[in-house]
Amino acid sequence: MAQCQGITKAGKRCRIRIVDDGTKYCRYHKSQGRTFGNWNNSKDSKSLDGPGYIYVFTLEHMLQRRPVKQDWLRMAAPTSDNIINYDKTRQLKPKHYILLKIGFTSGTPKRRLEQWRRQCKHQFTLVTPRMLSSIVCSKKDKMHVLLHSFSRLSLQDLGKYSKFDNKNLGFHTKLAFQTEQKIHHILHEKYGFGKIYCEGCKSTNGGIHKEWFLVPREDVKNIFEKINDLCQ
């Protein structure tokens, strides 16, 4: 028996056990599975195929040496009408987790980041492989920081990110949209599905973003390696 991949109204992974026959969601959360869709065969994926970059960014304060909670950055249970009850929210604790936004662009990640900054009215920063040793919190990586001052990567580490363009600060790929969809699918499977409610751009798209992921800091290196592997 497998565990349902759905997310409950309390924001936790569903505990219902389902037959391990390829089905990912129980009958209560089937709609969440349809949200991700069959990205590999969709008409949109074919029409949007083309070269570009996969970029990763986060909120600037989450890259501080000792990130602290922000009163405006809060977690809430999902609702069907997308209305938040602020009395039932809690602050997001960034010590062991980090919010990552992963997307694609046919332009440059730097230019796309500026667009997001203007739209959301937040201070975002692109995340690069050279930052990884200061993001993660495992004992092994703390030792890595001591051995490699100024967060410089070893030659062995650099080889893991062969698709990363240090000038444009993104992973170059021949199929940018499909690569992004594959990455999202993998991360949704592992970390679940949630929504980010953004006050800064609620007038343009309802203030909801679906491409953010709340992940353990110790997993960020593995995520970057997976992105590099998926880029063609």
From TrEMBL:
Entries under Pfam families matching the protein: DUF5763 (PF19067), MUG113 (PF13455)
Domain Bacteriophage T5 Orf172 DNA-binding span(s) in chain numbering: 94-227
Alphabetical list of InterPro entries matching this protein: DUF5763, Meiosis_regulatory, Phage_T5_Orf172_DNA-bd
UniProt name for this protein: DEBR0S2_16930g1_1
Species this protein is from: Dekkera bruxellensis (Brettanomyces custersii)
